Amino acid sequence: MHVVSPKDIANALTELWSPRVVAELDDSYVKVAKLHGTLAWHSHDDEDELFYVLSGRLRIEMEQTTVELAAGDAFVVPKGVRHNPVAEQECLVMLIERKTTRHTGSEVTAKTRSIAEQLRPIASVGSFFRDQAMSNSEQSTFFPPGWPRMATRIFADDHEELVRFLVDVFGATGALQRNRPSEIRIGDAVLLVSGIAERAAHGAILYVYVPDADATYRRALAAGARSLEAPAVMPYGDRRAMVEDRWGNTWQIATFRG
Predict the structure, then answer these.
(1) Cβ proximity of 251 and 245 under 8 Å
(2) Closest among 124, 99, 106, 177 to 15, alpha carbons compared
(3) What is the pLDDT of residues 190-211, one digit of tens each?
(4) Alpha-carbon gap, residue 258 to 246, rounded angstroms
(5) Contacts of 108 (CB under 8 A, 6+ apart)
(6) pLDDT tens digits for range 63-99
(7) Alpha carbon 255 to chain centroid distance?
(8) pLDDT for res 210
(9) What is the DSSP letter of 78?
(10) Are 249 and 207 in contact (CB under 8 A)?
């Protein structure tokens, strides 16, 4: 258990429009941000997004309406609704959104931040995930802040297309890198995706939890994956499907059913 002060953490931020994760709630992240100016028109096709104003005022412009929020007000932008947050003066907000939610949806601007960037520690207040995951003796530089202790590495020909597959099917976040492995996030998991300039293509078998296994399975097939097993309830309770992508990776796609 860990006590956090969202308003204090948001106030300590030095970057505008750069959310930071302060807590984890089931399949969602609780984030804070310091805002001033405008972000970008965008939408989140599969996720609702909750805004709670900690201080200041926030205007959320939408195509059909506009809402004005004062300190203490909250508003949920429904999935699929194009919106643009605007803060005429400095504003502190708390956000609750699913781990798959991309900062500016499919739009990419200079203000867009990946999940990896949002998990970075805040020097003045420490890092929620670092403090949760490691004892004091482990808080060192032997692995990057905001990373798990173990990540999956995949080598693939045409790795740019593989990254697009991960974004389209799983809502993955992260930027394609051409001179080093691309750091791709699915929720709190890290995949390092590389081309095959010096190594042979090498696939993996991955078990991924998603909110809706059936919908993700259908997206995978639409993106060119081959079905190995249709969605079904497993003896251990998960509803799970299995596909193989064209790079030879096997994806076991599951939703926990309790």
Answers:
(1) yes
(2) 124
(3) 888 888 766 777 778 999 988 8
(4) 32
(5) none
(6) 999 999 999 999 999 999 999 999 999 999 999 999 8
(7) 17
(8) 87
(9) P
(10) no
Helix axes of 213-222 and 159-170: crossing angle, nearest 10 degrees: 150
d(CA 191, CA 201): 15
Among all chains, which residue has been given the structure tokens 């990254």?
A: 163
> Residues in the chain, how many?
258
Residue with tokens 């948001």: 10
Tokens at residue 131, please?
A: 């403090």
Q: Distance between CA 160 and CA 169 in Å, rounded?
A: 14
Whose tokens are 């089931």? That residue is: 26
Q: What is residue 225's DSSP assignment?
A: P
Helical H segments across 126-172, by residue range:
128-133, 159-170
Nearest CA among 188, 176, 72, 204 for reference residue 129: 188
Strands 189-194 and 152-155, bridge-based pairing: parallel
Pairing of strands 28-38, 226-233: unpaired
pLDDT at 216 over 70: yes
**Distance between CA atoms of residues 39 and 192, nearest Å:** 29
> pLDDT above 70 covers what percent of the chain?
88
Confidence at residue 1, expressed as pLDDT on a 0 to 100 scale: 53
Encoding tokens for residue 140? 């060192």
Using one digit for the tens of pLDDT, what is the confidence trace for 103-136? 999 888 888 888 777 877 665 444 444 444 444 3
Sequence letter at residue 182: S
SS3 111: coil
Which pTM value belongs to this model? 0.53
